[in-house]
Amino acid sequence: MENKNTKLLNKQLIIEAIVASFTKLNPKVQIKNFVIFLVELGAIATTLVVFYELFSGSFSGFNLQITIWLWFTVLFANFSEAIAEGRGKAQADSLRKNRTETKAKLFDGKSKVTEINATELKKGNLVVCEAGDIIPSDGEVVEGIASVDESAITGESAPVIRESGGDRSAVTGGTKVISDRIVIRITAEQGDTFIDRMISLVEGASRQKTPNEIALSMLLVGLTIIFILAVVTLPAFFGYGLAASGLPASSNLSLTILIALLVCLIPTTIGGLLSAIGISGMDRLLRRNVIATSGRAIEAAGDVDVLLLDKTGTITLGNRMATDFIPAEGITSEELAIAAQLSSLSDETPEGRSIVVLAKEKYGLRAQNIHANDITFIPFTAQSRMSGVDIKSANGSIREIRKGSTLAIKKYVQQKDGFMPKAVEDVVEELARMGATPLVVAEGDKVLGVIHLKDIVKGGIKQRFAQLRAMGIRTVMVTGDNPLTAAAIAAEAGVDDFIAEAKPEDKLNRIRTEQANGRLVGMIGDGTNDAPALAQADVGIAMNSGTQAAREAGNMVDLDSNPTKLIEVVEVGKQLLMTRGSLTTFSIANDVSKYFAIIPAITTILYAKSGGEGPLSALNIMHLSTPESAILSAVIFNAIIIILLIPLALRGVAYKPMSANAILSRNILIYGLGGLIVPFIGIKLIDMVISMF
Question: Whole-angstrom Cα distance, residue 248 to residue 332?
């Protein structure tokens, strides 16, 4: 997408976020974040105190400073959320630029074509799109095949093929037909197209709090209530200490100090960053060209225990490639290569082209010089399971060369009174056991040998699976191959398990079995037959190039249609959960430190003789200058730390595959210990600056 490389922060984004920080002060908006809403109420209360003092002639600069920094705390928390939302809106604006008011060629299904505005289209309408036309809305190709430019959606400049009747039939509004002609059935109402949903999601308008967020919010509310009770009881205890010290009751804690204490002690840091963390998680996924229909799906990805991956295109390159020619007894490798190349001259499949290339690379064979009138190509059919060529020689005889499956070629040569040599059958069996695909070549009644076709496992995929294993995720390969072939490829790829000769119901049953055992399952698919499994899986990623049924069944859509994207989705989900956990740990540790920094400092006057320092001053281990300086320093630190943590909330905590115990230990060591130490350093530095003035 255009914005894939957008900077984390830019001038325009910051300006818009500053404006939004003030608009979010509306109590109806602010109350959605209870912790920050409480800070806003405190700021309002201290503001009233300042105005009262101003008009009564007892103005306090301390109260004014506390008030200013309380408002900054609220604004900084709003700013963090606005920054995250602003990045999403920037992406939405980019998507809107791709939505053009286009004309649609409404088709009556027979011959009549009427040009109308795209906005007038309804679900079920048929439209015709030809080369150069913008596809007016989401739909499925019901007739024809065409090359489509989807760069407006995916950012990928290379056109893709969309055709009727297969798993590549879905088209998206706003993309452009490059060649040929297709008829599309509209599958979305206006305002509910794929791009409309994308815009709504990235703007955050449809974003609901996830179960984890709700649970964490309840925890924060609980902690806040505890601290409210603690702060409310402080004047009574402090008053008792004042009376015992012989100090006047007027020296008791003021409303402003109590509010400042409360704001410092409640978890304002995570309260201010929680929403930004959730929004930025969806944003990071979108930057990988994956649309999640909910934050719940991203979180589920972070907790996935089992991944079901299709073999073809995910684990392997998807195209079997010729890697060797194995001749039968009495036949040279070059003779076999020549026959194999001749039989593949008209074969436009990747396998056929790889045979021609291998013969050229291995033996220097060039395309054969045969007159068109002397050659007849035999195309592959599902019934014959073989293809080949008939070549008429100068004396009128015909060379019949065929290549195909073992059973097909065996039957072919037997019909010509030939036979399949035992040595060739042994080679075929050995190749199948290795996970390869054998193609047998014959000329007339004589078997010439075997072409070794191999489904190439993607480079680096074994290392990726090892990473997943380190995360505690088990991988299951799903394939239609026979068990021998499936086992060989599974071993080479390094997956933990496999399902051979898999049918749609096998995928569904496996997912249900894993879920019944308490596991969260991820699945990726693109066909209508994948829809039940995608719908059942906790994380179902549908390919954008797949069918409408698949896209609607999944809770994520990969715009790049890259099957290996599931691994990245899991990493993003885990990074989201880690970021939230890390910053929550930091925030709570932060509050503990601020408690031990502030409370001792404000009690130094108790039990003191002649207004000096009392015995409780020994608890002021930070040696903060005065009680007022201690409180003001803590309030300033409390506001500033939110701003300092915004980049981390947006970028996310760096994720490395490791066990849950290792992650917890690292979390406590870095963010727990850091949350305890940083406030002591920060508050002391701010106190030193305040003391200078």
Answer: 111
CB 511 within 8 A of CB 533: yes
Helix (H, G, I), strand (E, B) or coil at 304: coil
- Interacting residues of 11 by C-beta distance below 8 A, sequence separation 6+: none
Q: Is 560 a catalytic residue?
A: no
For the cut 90, the answer to whether the pLDDT of residue 43 exceeds it is: yes
Between CA 436 and CA 493 the distance in angstroms is 14
> Are the C-beta atoms of 637 and 71 separated by less than 8 Å?
no
Burial of residue 254, with CB atoms counted within 10 A of its CB: 0-12 exposed, 13-18 middle, 19 or more buried:
middle
CB 54 within 8 A of CB 621: no
304: nearest Cα among 531, 180, 435, 474: 474
Question: What is the DSSP pairing of strand 113-117 with strand 316-327?
Answer: unpaired
pLDDT grade for 91, boundaries at 50, 70 and 90: low
pLDDT of residue 290: 84
Least confident of 1-15, 174-188, 344-358, 663-677: 1-15
535: its two tokens? 């719908």
Give me the phi and psi of 237, to 5 degrees please: -65, -40
String of DSSP letters for 239-272: HHHHHHHT--GGGSPPHHHHHHHHHHHS-HHHHH
Sheet with 386-392, edge to edge strand ranges: 316-327, 446-457, 437-443, 398-404, 386-392, 375-378
Per-residue CA distances from 362 to 285, 454, 529, 638 (Å): 45, 17, 41, 71
For 594-623, the DSSP string reads: HHHHHHHHHTTTTT-STTS--GGGGG-TT-
The whole-angstrom separation of Cα 688 and Cα 429 is 81
Give the Cβ contact number of residue 117 at 10 Å: 11
* pTM given for the model: 0.66
Residue 170 in contact with residue 217, Cβ under 8 Å? no
Three-state secondary structure of 81-119: HHHHHHHHHHHHHHHHHCCCCCEEEEECCCCCEEEEEHH
**How far, CA to CA in Å, does 57 sit from each of 48, 60, 498, 603?**
14, 9, 81, 28
Q: CA nearest 663: which of 674, 677, 653, 650?
A: 653
Query: Using the 8-state DSSP alphabet, how is residue 668 labeled?
Result: I
pLDDT digits (tens, 9 = 90+) for 332-345: 989 999 898 888 88
Amino acid, res. 59: F
Determine contact, residues 100/90, Cβ cutoff 8 Å.
no
- Cα 206 to Cα 200: distance, rounded to the nearest angstrom: 6
The residues facing 556 across adjacent strands are 292, 541
**Count helices and strands in the chain by DSSP H and E runs:** 23, 21
Q: Of 310, 455, 530, 687, which residue is the catalytic one?
A: 310
- For 226-280, write each residue's pLDDT tens digit: 889 988 998 888 888 888 877 787 778 889 989 998 998 888 988 888 878 877 7
Contact 141, 180 (CB under 8 A): no
Neighbours of 684 (CB within 10 A): 16
Could you give the angle at the alpha carbon of 118 between the alpha carbons of 528 and 159, nearest 5°? 55
